[in-house]
Design brief:
The complex is a heterodimer of chains A (about 475) and B (about 525). Chain A is of the alpha+beta class. Chain A folds into 2 domains: about 350 residues, no CATH class; about 60 residues, no CATH class. Chain A has 8 helices and 20 strands. The radius of gyration of chain A is 31 Å and the shape is globular. The termini of chain A are far apart. Chain B is about 45% helix and about 15% strand. Chain B starts with a helix and ends with a helix. Chain B contains 15 helices and 16 strands. The radius of gyration of chain B is 37 Å and the shape is elongated. About 5% of the residues of chain B have low confidence. Classes of the chains: A alpha+beta (about 475), B alpha/beta (about 525). Strand 1 of chain A pairs antiparallel with strand 1 of chain B, so a sheet runs across the interface. Chain A: One of its GO terms (cellular component) is GPI-anchor transamidase complex.
């Protein structure tokens, strides 16, 4: 074999020019070959204008092309019989707690919980394959090394004196607080990018959060999930009190649920009724938790909560009667197939013999739990069981008030705030904290984030308790 | 009188001194402090880029095997390497590859005798997996001189090289942004519009759509499938861009069209015309990567619900597509996976179904190759192409992609730089910071090095330089500081400066005029006196 090097260089000379010379294309070549793997684009030649626009249009019509691939015909249908799915690493639970309030209003609290046995912050292993956990949130957690994320959007004011304590308190407007992981070097940079990405995900103007309204609380917050070290350098907190919550924020929030708003408890969330209420708050809480009791490995928990209080008088009629249909203009027909548990709890603690209100349809299931320090009893409706839906295949809880409302709830601790006076000279902000416990005293930590355009003079701070002045210590 | 004169003299000197200070110190100081900071840009180099001449050269090596040349012809040829091999075709390819490890972008053609049995009868050229090809020599007489032999081979070798490397159509398609396409085939236009634009990184998302979780409980081992099928291809394509793969499952995701029931095959069918409406409702839920701005390629796997099973796709000629999949240019693809045969009507709902990932990944791999621009080659008749093997991509196919990518990158980068230079030239008020100037200079030098490397035939280096060039030019073009346009229209400038300078300048100018008129008067008096 004789070999010799025969360098042949193909010389292409192309000239770039800004001026395009329109040339006349006469006909396009027929693309009609049928050998082997080909596109299924075969058409007759066409006359084309000078700039070939007709050719482009024709192609646009035929843009969707079938993929021609030699496929193996053997499907292996026999495998499905012997297939046992592996244990799923993530699970989804949904629940709705209904609590009738003494003033005749009703408080409904949804909670959707996804638990995933995985570690987002593990070194080297990128989490890429999502099932029940929403991909957008997972990518945000990985990219910004977030250990905990709490965001809430609230419209309305929680009247503690009339309604008692909420399950999860939230201030009006938008509130966001985040614990970052220890490995983050530039917390402020991550915070800024995170707020912008979240404002895109939730369709809210969180991009107004910047360094002028972000605080780094050094004593008030501690991580709600797992966490050994609580270095407050990695905590950031911001609120936007004037952020308005509307359907635009509810829709992306519902999109994060695995079943969407098509099945399960989420079908009840119709915005025209939800926003016609005294109080509406939707929140997302993400935190790492222990997988089991010994806490050998981490799991991540995503909780989406929606709290709403329906007002007796604004929803018309004035008759003290509540039903799922009246509250949400929908009834329930099925549970979310992806949920391992789907339940409705109705608080009947104040109604042991049924003298205050009547609950239909009756249910034999009862459950007791300690909530916010109180022992409460709940009637449980399990949506995964077919008999809950009865003969009509739909569940419409009905709650009819019989007696008059009892004495008002006295919450143990609550706070109020009001503005007095006007202007820089005589304006005042009063914050009043009540402790209604019969004998116990509680230490209270008050965190107040004041915007930069409000000039408060610290030397005018007075703390009064039991109508005696308390001199603030240094 | 003399005191008055002295006073006047001092006044004159004072006015002159003030005027001097204003003119010599004040005006330059004001000019300097109100000019916008513009760092120096290499405008001459950029205008050169405008009329760039690209020269692409491929290293081709032609090896004559024993029996192709007669001894006289052989004598004329300078001997550099002689070796004997006798192998089956695939092994021949591999051993030939190991004989001379060809660098990125080069092509090696082995000419074998006409009567050789290595290739089947009607096959003239066999293109291997690496960068080698086997060419059956055309018949020639033994009395021909070496020159005639080589000239008769020319045409054949050129055909081989244009298949394995690049041809005029490919390059023009890659430059379609910059250069007006004069005569294009429908194929190449379709090809150029299908492949996604060159970008430093891509996100690939696999989504499983389950519209009926009550009936089907789907399980797919996407992690393993991506590791074994997609990742080798992406590793091979690593010099072109960074890839990141993820997957998700979407429940209650319905298609935008209701498929029609076809009685003849007792199945549901989606016609090709309705395909463009299918994706619409799903696309809102797919989401792009929340944390990056790279373009996304979506691959959807749709399992029809129990009431609309089985579902087939019909193409324009009303035939069923065997792979049951279709793709959309620059977006991604969708495949319909029927599971109605996997369970009977008595099965307990929801049915656990395991998806056969091998079949699915084969289709997605083919779609991914098309999306990334690995074009279907249309070799002339008599050519046989070896299948790409486990990596999913032959070396020469990768070379083709690299050629068109580097040309495209150079085209885009030079467009960006020239338009940026034009913009900055025309609008004199934009502040040009140092970092922008540095990015522009580095982009220009990278472009020049890329052109030089293309000329020399070093494809790998050319691609790297072209990538750097495009990154630097994009960063310079989209820098947020360039938006900071100091807008000073002329009448507003007057409105600002006149109240400041006019009261100051009027006394100075008037006193200067007075001094000048007095000096003129004195001269006139002196003139009159001397007369």
């Amino acid at each position: 074999m004789a070999a010799h090097r025969y360098g042949l260089s193909l010389v292409f000379i192309l000239i770039f020019s800004l001026l395009a010379h329109p040339s006349s294309c006469d006909t396009l070549e027929k693309a009609n070959d049928n050998t082997g793997e080909k596109q299924s684009v075969s058409d007759a030649p066409q006359e084309v204008n000078t700039d070939g626009s007709a050719a482009v249009e024709d192609l646009n019509e035929r843009q969707w092309q079938s993929t021609d691939v030699e496929v193996d015909r053997s499907d292996g249908t026999k495998d499905s019989e012997t297939f046992t799915p592996a244990a799923a690493k993530d699970q989804f639970q949904e629940e709705l707690v209904i609590r009738p309030l003494h003033s005749g209003d009703i408080y409904a609290s949804f909670q959707f919980r996804t638990l995933w046995d995985i570690d987002f912050l593990q070194e080297g292993q990128k989490v890429s394959h999502y099932r029940l956990f929403p991909k957008s949130l997972g990518q945000v957690l990985s990219k910004f090394s977030v250990r905990e994320l709490h965001i809430s959007f609230t419209q309305g004011f929680w009247r503690t004196m009339q309604w008692g304590q909420p399950f999860i308190p939230s201030p009006p407007g938008a509130e966001l607080w985040v614990w970052f992981h220890d490995t983050v070097s530039d917390v402020d940079g991550n915070w800024k990018e995170l707020t912008n990405v979240l404002s895109g995900i939730f369709c809210a103007s969180l991009n107004f959060i910047d360094l002028t309204n972000t605080v780094q609380p050094s004593a008030s917050f501690k991580p709600l999930g797992l966490g050994n070290v609580t270095d407050h350098r990695f905590l950031r907190y911001a609120t936007l009190p004037r952020e308005i919550v509307c359907t635009e924020n509810l829709t992306p929030w519902k999109k994060l649920l695995p079943c969407g708003s098509k099945a399960g408890l989420a079908v009840l969330m119709k915005s025209e009724k939800l926003f016609h209420s005294s109080f509406h708050s939707q929140a997302v809480h993400i935190r790492p938790v222990c997988q089991d009791e010994q806490c050998t490995s981490k799991a991540w928990e995503l909780r989406q909560t929606l709290n709403v209080v329906f007002d007796l008088y604004t929803s018309g009629q004035g008759k003290k009667e509540w039903s799922l249909f009246k509250m949400f203009s929908r009834t329930l027909t099925e549970a979310c197939p992806l949920a391992t548990s789907s339940k409705i709890y109705v608080d009947i603690t104040d109604n042991p013999e049924g003298e205050l209100f009547e609950l239909t349809p009756a249910t034999p299931l009862l459950s007791q739990a300690v909530v916010l320090g109180d022992r409460r009893t709940y009637s449980v409706y399990d949506l995964t069981r077919a008999e809950t839906f009865g003969q009509l295949r739909s569940l419409n809880l009905l709650l009819r008030w019989k007696g008059d409302s009892g004495d008002m709830l006295r919450p143990l601790l609550h706070a109020e705030r009001y503005v007095a006076g006007f202007g820089l000279q005589t304006g005042e902000i009063h914050t009043v904290i009540y402790n209604n416990h019969p004998y116990r005293a509680f230490p209270v930590l008050l965190m107040d984030s004041v915007p930069w355009y409000l000039q408060l003079y610290i030397h005018t701070l007075t703390v009064t308790s039991k109508s005696r002045d308390n001199k603030p210590s240094e | 009188m003399a005191a008055l004169q002295l006073e006047k003299q001092r006044g004159r000197y004072a006015a002159l001194a003030i005027a001097a200070v204003v003119i010599v110190v004040g005006i330059p100081l004001w000019w300097k402090t109100t000019e916008t900071y513009r760092a120096w840009l290499p405008f001459s180099d950029i205008s050169e880029l405008d009329t760039l001449q690209l020269q692409l050269s491929v290293d081709i090596e032609v090896v004559f095997s024993r029996g192709t040349l007669t001894p006289e012809q052989q004598k004329k040829v300078p001997l550099s390497h002689v070796s004997e091999k006798e192998h089956h075709i695939d092994e021949a390819d591999l051993s030939l590859h190991m004989l001379s490890e060809s660098s990125c972008g080069s092509v090696v053609v082995y000419v074998i005798p006409e009567s050789s049995t290595l290739l089947p009868e009607d096959v003239k050229v066999y293109v291997g997996q690496r960068r080698t090809a086997l060419l059956r020599s055309p018949p020639f007489k033994s009395s021909w001189s070496l020159k005639e032999v080589l000239s008769s081979l020319d045409v054949k070798v050129e055909q081989v090289v244009s298949t394995m490397s690049f041809n005029h159509q490919d390059i023009v398609a890659a430059l379609s942004d910059r250069v007006r396409m004069t005569k294009v085939t429908k194929e190449s236009m379709a090809d150029s519009m299908r492949a996604i634009k060159s970008s430093p990184g891509y996100e690939i998302t696999f989504s499983l759509l389950n519209p009926d979780p009550k009936s089907h409980s789907l399980h797919w081992d996407i992690e393993g499938a991506v590791q074994s099928c997609i990742q080798p291809l992406l590793n091979k394509l690593a010099p072109i861009a960074n890839f990141s793969v993820d997957s998700q499952i979407l429940y209650y995701a319905v298609l935008g069209v209701n498929p029609r029931f076809d009685n003849s095959v007792s199945a549901y069918a989606l016609s090709a015309d309705s395909l463009s409406h299918v994706i619409n409702p799903v696309e809102a839920r797919l989401g792009s990567n929340a944390a990056s701005s790279n373009p996304v390629l979506n691959f959807l796997l749709y399992v029809p619900d129990a009431h609309h099973s089985p579902l087939f796709i019909r193409d324009h000629s009303k035939r069923e597509v065997p792979s049951n999949a279709f793709h959309s240019p620059r977006w991604g693809g969708i495949m319909v996976y029927n599971v109605n045969e996997m369970y009977g009507p008595e099965a307990e709902r929801p049915v656990d179904i395991n998806i056969n990932m091998a079949k699915v990944m084969g289709v997605f791999l083919a779609q991914l190759r098309l999306m990334l621009g690995v074009q279907h080659t249309h070799p002339p008749p008599g050519f046989v192409l070896q299948s790409p093997g486990s990596a999913g991509l032959a070396d020469w196919e990768l070379d083709r992609l690299l050629w068109s990518r580097s040309v495209e990158n150079i085209a885009t980068a030079s467009t960006t730089i020239t338009s940026l230079a034009q913009l900055l030239d025309q609008i004199g008020n934009i502040v040009i910071n140092d970092n922008i100037a540095q990015q522009v200079s580095s982009a220009v030098t990278s472009l020049q090095s890329a052109v030089v490397e293309l000329e020399a035939g070093n494809l790998a280096f050319a691609l790297q330089y072209s990538r750097e060039a495009i990154l630097a030019s994009e960063r310079a073009f989209f820098d947020p500081s360039l938006l900071h346009l100091l807008y000073f229209p002329d009448d507003q400038k007057f409105a600002i400066y006149i109240p400041l300078f006019l009261p100051m300048c009027v006394p100075i100018v008037l006193s200067l005029l007075k001094i000048m008129s007095e000096a003129k008067q004195k001269r006139a008096e002196k003139q009159a006196k001397s007369d």
